[in-house]
Design a protein that fits this description.
The chain is an alpha+beta fold and 646 residues long. It is 59% helix and 9% strand. It folds into three domains: 2-272, no CATH class; 307-392, 2-Layer Sandwich (Phosphorylase Kinase, domain 1), CATH 3.30.200; 429-503 and 532-645, no CATH class.
Length: 646
C-alpha cells in the first residue's frame, strides 16, 4: 500500500513537472505571440506519449508540427522554441550529473554521463561562439541548404533559422527571474518524482538508478518504455503496470485538461499566463511581414546580406507591427501597409544613401502641410544611415489608378483637374523664379547625358543599342541613337528656355495620387504622396511630364507586365493599356493647351522623355528581366515626340 502511495506521489510530481514545463515553454513563445492553451497541452502530452514508443525523443518532432500549425509564426518558430527548451534541459541534467558525481556516486554510467554532458556543453558553447564570429558565413550556409528544397520547405527552413537566432538573441527580453524559478521548481518536481518512483518500484540503487536510466548516454537511443524495462522489477508484469501508470497517467491528464469546458480551463490559463481572454501584450513580431512572398524576400536578404547594421535597424523599426502588404515601386525606399495594436498606417523607410533622399522627402512633406492636400505624417525616426516615417491610412482611400478604372470617368477627371488647378494656383506660386544657366547644364549632365551613357554601356541592351530600328510588339520604331538630336544640350536648352522654377512635387505619377470617396467636393477628394526633391531643374513642367509618363507612356501598365520576350531587335510584351488612360490623356492635353503656350506643352512632353531616361538606370540595375520593356517605352515616347516636334 505504501508503495502505491509513493507511486501516486510520483505521478503527481511528474504531472507538476510537465505543467511547469508548459509554463516555461510559454515564456519563450509569449515574446512573439499568444500560444493557444489547448494546443500547448496537447502537443506536450501527445509528444511525450510518442516518446514511449519512439527512440531519441522523436515525439518532439510531433510536438513541433502540432503546435507549429497552430502558431502564427509557423513550425520553424515552434521548433526553435523546443530547441531552446531542450538546451536548458541539457544544462540542468549536466549540473545534476555533476552533483551526483561530486557526492560520490561511483557508477560507471555517472562518469560517462558527466563526460557526455560536459562535451555537449562545450560543443554548444563553442557553437555559439562560432556562430557569433562567423555569422555571415553560417547564414549563407543555412540559406544554401534551404535552397535545395521547394519554396514552401525553403521558407519554413529559413524561418526556423531566423526564429532560432531570435530566440537566443531575445533571451534578455524574457523575465529571467520567472524562468529561473520555474526551471528550479520544475526540476525539483521531476527529481522528487524520480525519487518517489524509485521507492515505489524498490529498484536497486534508488533515485540514482532511475535518473541514470532515464538520462544516461545509453538511454538517449531508447524509447521511454525501453528505459523503464531496465529498472529492475519493472521487467515483471506488475512492474510494467507500475511503469505504464507512472509514464502514461500524467500524459493522459494533460490531454484530458484540454477537454474541460472553458469555465475550468480559464482559471488555469490565468494562473499559467496563457489565457486567451487577458489583455493582449505588445508582442515582438518574429517576422513582421504577413505575405509569405514578402517573408521570403526579407529572409533571403537577411541570410545573404553582410550589412548587419541596416538589417538590425529594420528589425528594430518593425518588430511591433504586422506588415500587411508591400507597396514598394520604382525607388530605393520601401513602402508598406502596416498595422499595430491601435491603427493601420503606411510606413516608408530607406537605408544608406537612399535614407538621405527620403529625409529630404519628409522635410518637403512637413514644409508643405496646408499648402496642398498631402498625406499626414504620424511618426518619424531618422538617424545616421536610416530614415523612416509613417503616413496616415484612410479607409475610404484608393490609388488613382484603381479609382479611375472603377468610378465614372467624369468623377475621376474632376478630381485630377482639381489637383492640377491646386498645384498651379498654390504650389507652383511658391519661390517662383527664372531658370539659371548652371542649373540647366547640371540638369542636362546628370539627368540626360549621364543616364544616356549608362544605357549605352549596359550589357543587357547591347544588341538593342546597335540596331537602327527595333520591333516593339510587331511595330517598327526608330532606335534611340537615330534620334540623338532629341538629347542634344542646345536643342533641349532651347525647348526649356521658357520654363519657370518654383516649388514642385517632382513625382506626380498616377500612383502617387490617392483618391477619397467624396463626390461633393473634388478639392477634398484626394491627397498626394511621395514627392521627389532631387530634380535640379525645378520647373512645374516636370510634374506635368511625370503625369504624362503615366497617361502617355503607360508606366503603370508596364509595371503590371511580368513576362518580356527579347529576340534580336524584337521585344514583345503584353501591353494592356486601357481606353480610360487614352481618354484621360486627351483631357490632360486639352488642359495643358488651355493653361500654357504651345512651347510650354512641347517642353512638358520633352520632360516626359527625360523622365523615361532617368528611369532606365534603376531598371537596368534592379529589374533586369524587364529592362528591355522599359527601354521600349522610352523608344516609343521618343518616336512620338520626334514625330510631333521634330
Amino acid at each position: 500500500m505504501i508503495k502505491w502511495i509513493f507511486l501516486v506521489g510520483a505521478v503527481l510530481m511528474l504531472l507538476l513537472g510537465h505543467y511547469l514545463r508548459i509554463l516555461r515553454w510559454e515564456k519563450f513563445i509569449n515574446l512573439y505571440e499568444r500560444p493557444p492553451i489547448s494546443a500547448m497541452f496537447r502537443s506536450l502530452s501527445l509528444g511525450y506519449a510518442l516518446n514511449l514508443i519512439l527512440p531519441v525523443r522523436a515525439g518532439d518532432i510531433f510536438r513541433t508540427a502540432y503546435l507549429g500549425r497552430r502558431l502564427r509564426n509557423g513550425m520553424g518558430f515552434s521548433l526553435a522554441t523546443i530547441i531552446l527548451d531542450r538546451f536548458m534541459d541539457i544544462v540542468a541534467v549536466a549540473v545534476i550529473f555533476l552533483i551526483l558525481h561530486t557526492l560520490g556516486v561511483t557508477k560507471a554510467a555517472i562518469t560517462g554521463s558527466v563526460m557526455l554532458y560536459e562535451i555537449a556543453a562545450i560543443v554548444i558553447g563553442t557553437g555559439l561562439i562560432v556562430c557569433k564570429l562567423f555569422s555571415p558565413q553560417i547564414k549563407q550556409t543555412a540559406a544554401a541548404v534551404c535552397a535545395f528544397f521547394n519554396d514552401t520547405i525553403r521558407l519554413e527552413g529559413l524561418k526556423f533559422f531566423w526564429s532560432l537566432i531570435n530566440a537566443f538573441r531575445d533571451l534578455n527580453k524574457i523575465d529571467v527571474a520567472k524562468v529561473s524559478v520555474i526551471t528550479v521548481v520544475m526540476w525539483a518536481a521531476y527529481l522528487s518524482s524520480y525519487g518517489l518512483f524509485a521507492l515505489a518500484i524498490s529498484g536497486p540503487g534508488g533515485f540514482s538508478t532511475v535518473f541514470i536510466t532515464l538520462f544516461s548516454g545509453s538511454s538517449l537511443g531508447m524509447t521511454a518504455l525501453g528505459s523503464m524495462k531496465k529498472l529492475g522489477k519493472s521487467t515483471t508484469p506488475i512492474g510494467m503496470v507500475e511503469s505504464l501508470i507512472y509514464t502514461l497517467t500524467p500524459v493522459f491528464a494533460l490531454y484530458v485538461v484540454t477537454l474541460f469546458p472553458d469555465v475550468f480551463r480559464k482559471p488555469m490559463g490565468r494562473t499559467a499566463g496563457l489565457s486567451n481572454d487577458v489583455k493582449e501584450e505588445n508582442y515582438l513580431n518574429i517576422l513582421p511581414q504577413v505575405d509569405p512572398r514578402d517573408q521570403m524576400q526579407f529572409l533571403e536578404d537577411y541570410f545573404s546580406s553582410s550589412n548587419r547594421k541596416f538589417i538590425d535597424k529594420f528589425i528594430e523599426l518593425n518588430r511591433g507591427i504586422s506588415i500587411l502588404r508591400d507597396y514598394s515601386a520604382g525607388s530605393n525606399a520601401t513602402t508598406m501597409l502596416c498595422m499595430d495594436r491601435e491603427k493601420t498606417f503606411y510606413r516608408k523607410y530607406a537605408f544608406g544613401e537612399a535614407s538621405e533622399k527620403l529625409n529630404e522627402q519628409l522635410v518637403w512633406l512637413e514644409e508643405h502641410q496646408g499648402v496642398i492636400p498631402i498625406c499626414d505624417i504620424l511618426h518619424k525616426d531618422c538617424g545616421n544611415g536610416w530614415c523612416c516615417y509613417d503616413m496616415a491610412y484612410v479607409g475610404n482611400a484608393y490609388g488613382m489608378f484603381q479609382y479611375m478604372h472603377s468610378q465614372p470617368f467624369e468623377r475621376s477627371w474632376s478630381i485630377l483637374k482639381s489637383i492640377l488647378d491646386t498645384l498651379c494656383d498654390h504650389l507652383y506660386t511658391l519661390d517662383r523664379r527664372k531658370p539659371d544657366e548652371n542649373s540647366m547644364k547640371q540638369y542636362f549632365t546628370e539627368k540626360v547625358d549621364r543616364n544616356m551613357e549608362k544605357i549605352q554601356g549596359s550589357r543587357i541592351l547591347t544588341d538593342f543599342i546597335r540596331q537602327e530600328y527595333i520591333i516593339i510588339n510587331g511595330k517598327k520604331y526608330k532606335n534611340l541613337p537615330e534620334m540623338d538630336e532629341l538629347f542634344d544640350y542646345e536643342y533641349l536648352r532651347n525647348v526649356f528656355s521658357n520654363d519657370n522654377y518654383s516649388d514642385i512635387h517632382g513625382d506626380l505619377t498616377i500612383e502617387n495620387i490617392i483618391c477619397l470617396d467624396n463626390e461633393r467636393d473634388p478639392s477634398k477628394a484626394y491627397y498626394i504622396i511621395d514627392p521627389n526633391t532631387g530634380n535640379i531643374h525645378n520647373s512645374s513642367f516636370l510634374d506635368f511630364g511625370k503625369l504624362l509618363q503615366s497617361l502617355h507612356g503607360g508606366y503603370e501598365f508596364m509595371m503590371m507586365t511580368k513576362n518580356v520576350k527579347v529576340n534580336g531587335n524584337r521585344v514583345d510584351f503584353l501591353y494592356t493599356r486601357s481606353t480610360i488612360y487614352d481618354e484621360m490623356l486627351e483631357k490632360v492635353k486639352g488642359y495643358l493647351r488651355e493653361r500654357f503656350t504651345e512651347a510650354g506643352v512641347r517642353s512638358i512632353f520633352h520632360h516626359e522623355l527625360i523622365h523615361w531616361l532617368r528611369l532606365m538606370p534603376y531598371k537596368l540595375e534592379n529589374d533586369k528581366k524587364r529592362a528591355a520593356m522599359f527601354y521600349a517605352g522610352l523608344v516609343m515616347v521618343a518616336n512620338d515626340i520626334e514625330e510631333w516636334y521634330g
